[in-house]
Amino acid sequence: MRRLIPEESDPKYASFIYDPQKSFLNALPRRFIPEESDAEIVEAFYEFSAEIGKIEMVFCLMNYLLLVLDLVLHAEAL
């Protein structure tokens, strides 16, 4: 439910003057996400996490291959 700006005679007026941003945020209506949407968000998070895990594995493999290549090149120089 939205709230109006309090009148000077209203006890909430002092808190409105003290912290208008907080009063503004409290005046906004609250919205609740249905449980189905929560499940979709969780599923998307796990899918995203899996993709990040794959990318991390590619970076690890590339670093390993570069390390092996560096060792091989330096071993030939000896």
State the separation between the terminal residues, measured CA to CA.
78 Å
Shape: elongated
Described by strand count, sense and barrel closure, the largest sheet is: none
Strand content: under 5%
Tell me the total number of β-strands. 0
The total domain count is 2
Please report the number of helical segments: 3
Q: What is the CA-atom radius of gyration, in angstroms?
A: 28 Å
Low-confidence stretches: none
State the secondary-structure class.
mainly alpha
Secondary-structure element order, as H and E? HHH
What is the average of the pLDDT values?
85
Helix content: over 70%
Q: What's the short story on this structure?
A:
73% of the residues lie in helices and 0% in strands. By secondary structure, it is mainly alpha-helical. It has 2 domains: 1-31, no CATH class; 33-78.
Tell me what the structure shows.
By secondary structure, the chain is mostly helical. The protein has 2 domains: 1-31, no CATH class; 33-78. Helices cover 73% and strands 0% of the residues. It has 3 helices and no strands. The longest helix is centred in the C-terminal third of the chain and has 43 residues, at 35-77. It is elongated and about 90 Å long. 0% of the residues are buried. This is Lipoxygenase, putative. InterPro entries: LipOase_C_sf (IPR036226).
Summarize the topology:
Layout: H1 13-18, H2 20-27, H3 35-77
Notable characteristics:
73% helix; LipOase_C_sf; 78 residues; Lipoxygenase, putative; mainly alpha; 2 domains
